[in-house]
Amino acid sequence: MERTLVAFTTTLLASVVAHAAHPPRTLREAGTASDRDFVSTRPNTGGRAFARQVIVPEIRPATSEASPKALSRTIYLDRDGVTLFPGDNDAAHGRSTLVSEPVEITPWEIDDESWRETVSCVAALYSRFDVTVTDQDPGAAPHIQAVFGGHPNDVGLPDYVAGVSPYRTDCGIVENSIVFTFTDVLDDDPRMMCEIMAQEIAHSYGLDHEMLAEDPMTYLDYDGDRTFQDEMASCGEDGDRPCGIDGSVCWARQNSVALLASRLGRRGAEDTPPEHVTTTEPEVGGCSTSGSGGPPGLVVIALALGLRRRHRRAN
Hints:
By secondary structure, the protein is α/β, with parallel strands linked by helices. The protein has one domain (26-264): Collagenase (Catalytic Domain), CATH 3.40.390. Helix content is 14%, strand content 16%. The strands form three sheets. The chain has an eight-stranded mixed β-sheet with strand order 1-2-3-10-11-9-4-8, with helices on one face. It is globular, with a radius of gyration of 18 Å.
């Protein structure tokens, strides 16, 4: 896979990047982390945990736009491996806050049919929102890069971490984010991989974990196919808490469909606030006035794959 990496040649990359365990990163508890630290709870009953990286945003001038739309409304699903360098999140140039030194993430060695099933599943989960889901590199266009591959040790995280994403303390949008599902520590189950990645992507759009088992934002067990739920739910991993990271509070509860719609827009809808979203009470999720500013991004069309989808247990 070709990625634009400014000022580096292929020869230099080979000499500076080592695919090996990187310096361990401590997983901290809420209220004990600082900017760029990682936060997670104990693993769920399946032995997995989902980490988030604390991102303290710069203070920006107030905007009259109640809920700014994401510029990064293309979701690039990448199974081919990637070389990353530390820096502010910039998917187009291979820079990520998640890494502290150059790192090579190995590809997800999966058969083409299983990959098509995974892509189809992610596209289906995001089909009601105004985004493109694609496995073709969008180049310099704003996008979220969702990397399937590698091991959590590659970025210094413990073996039980299945996925990770940056997460803003104001629950805003992390533009041009790079998120991970670590396939080396998971079974090659397309549905499971899809649901984990759907959660990691949504973290970069400002969604927290929630106590609703049928939603992909959950830690809870569920014997079925998860989808984003259009109902209010408490945030948390194994118990109710306010929504936010490291003790910051954005709102009391969240509605994952309403919050994604407020950030991405609803498919086929005019650019107006979605139902179940208010613009005056930020204590209910889906109505945050925080997030990245600026005008809406390009109007995009979801990828219609029309591929056969197998139903598998998520855990």
